Recover the amino acids of this structure.
């Protein structure tokens, strides 16, 4: 039995080497998605304001404030996430942006909702585990 446990540990310890790469890929993927969304908002600001006024029902915020905050979050937080600088905070920030997007858009198609759930899970993993060894946080010893 001990030999089987040792074999199991030997095989699956190798997966630990993939964790930094997996976290890096998760950070890059989610950052890319949100950064593109932020650029789209900036590219046509009048449409962005119209969407926030008439389509998105962001709770507790004026539509203009919500548009500015969402755009700022979608531009700045992905950059921090890619760098792995304040990675946990950036992941939590994008998780919140993602969550507000889900609760604000009432007629979200199921496929889009599934993507938001997927992005949220990836951001929770980064928030829990940190940005990983391939990050500025690791270089600066930031938790």
């Amino acid at each position: 039995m001990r030999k089987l446990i040792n074999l199991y540990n030997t095989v699956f310890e190798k997966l630990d080497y993939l964790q930094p790469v997996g976290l890096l890929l998760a950070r890059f993927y989610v950052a890319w998605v949100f950064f593109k969304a932020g650029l789209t908002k900036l590219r046509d600001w009048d449409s962005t304001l119209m969407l926030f006024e008439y389509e998105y029902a962001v709770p507790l915020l004026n539509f203009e404030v919500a548009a500015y905050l969402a755009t700022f979050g979608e531009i700045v937080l992905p950059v921090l996430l890619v760098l792995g600088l304040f990675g946990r905070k950036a992941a939590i920030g994008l998780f919140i942006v993602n969550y507000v997007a889900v609760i604000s858009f009432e007629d979200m198609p199921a496929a889009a909702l599934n993507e938001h759930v997927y992005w949220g899970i990836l951001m929770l993993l980064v928030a829990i585990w940190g940005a990983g060894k391939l990050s500025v946080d690791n270089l600066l010893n930031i938790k």
Notes: The chain has one domain: 20-140. The longest helix spans residues 19-43. The two ends are 39 Å apart (CA to CA). The chain is about 80% helix and 0% strand.
